[in-house]
Amino acid sequence: MERIYNFSAGPAVLPQEVLEQARDEMLNWQGCGMSVMEMSHRGKEFMGIAAQAEADLRELMAIPANYKVLFLQGGASTQFAMVPMNLLRGKKSADYVNTGEWSKKAIKEAKKFGAVNVVASSEDANFSYAPTQDKWKLDSDAAYVHYTPNETIGGVEFNWIPETSGVPLVADMSSNILSRVIDVSKFGLIYAGAQKNIGPAGLTIVIVRDDLIGETIAGTPSMMDYKIHAENESMYNTPPTYGIYMAGLVFRWLKHNGGLVKMEANNVAKAKLLYDCLDASNFYHCPTAKENRSRMNVPFTLKDAALDEAFLKEAKARGLVQLKGHRSVGGMRASIYNAMPIDGVKALVALMNDFEKSHG
Ligand code: PMP
């Protein structure tokens, strides 16, 4: 059976080579006679898999030694609560930037634990841009500053890292982690659900500067305490073993394919193909501000929403799936994460051009 081009926002396309390796190792991982799914998380085989995955991620992102890498569960949504529980550290409030649906959810959750100052928002323009830093009203006494570098639904991405003058910067990188080179030392904490650029759903990655952990608010459950996870090397309880294994294969794949420098160049090229097509047309419309267009999630609408169904049908006939926009936005959304080959984007552009000719 042919593989299709899957433009889902997540769970999303994985590299074919990774799936093939997982298939080949499914019944008998490297001669040990069992699947990774069947291994004890404390056995030497799995401990080796987890250690290698962490080492490869550290190398790929050049994560400094004073940062912990945690392999957790609960999705990015659990981080919306764990961040304030762990990082408020006796402070009264935290600063949040509101650039869309995911920021809003993070803000809503943080309000359960302390005061939240929304220091900048793009709600005035339907979350179509990222407010520049001169518009932010940062509080120098805030516990941390939280933002969403890539809003998966709105398709808005920051192409710069905020400067917070020593206040720890926290980023929900769920939908753009590993897609570009970033300087981890500029962040206090980075978190991401795995199901877009890392691996299967169920694994959540947290990268946190070690001096920020260990001072949770009263009543924080053990499972929500970064320090406990760090001290137990993410094995305080049974970790999502298969997800860690798959993430490790993806990290290997990234290393073999030029690392994040090459990924970023690929992603720039893929996004350019799509945005150039959108800009050249009066039939399609992209709602996001040019300077904040996401390289990962590209929302667009057709001139007439009544044509959406026909577009999706034609896409499906060509093996292009999951292009329907988020229910809150409508239209289309093409998610083009690391594992989406450039040929997939070319196929989408060809469809868009043909569809415009026949329906424009
Ligand atoms: N933040 C962002 C930016 C996301 O895209 C998502 C998932 N689409 C989430 C948070 C929520 O992640 P999860 O489903 O892993 O809780």
From TrEMBL:
Sites bearing N6-(pyridoxal phosphate)lysine, chain numbering = K196
Q: What class of enzyme is it?
A: transferase
Q: What is its EC number?
A: 2.6.1.52
SUPFAM superfamilies linked to this entry:
PLP-dependent transferases
Q: Tell me a GO cellular component.
A: cytoplasm
Compartments annotated for it: namely: Cytoplasm
Q: How is the cofactor bound?
A: Binds 1 pyridoxal phosphate per subunit.
Regarding protein family, the annotation reads: Belongs to the class-V pyridoxal-phosphate-dependent aminotransferase family. SerC subfamily.
Q: What is this protein called?
A: Phosphoserine aminotransferase
Give the gene symbol.
serC
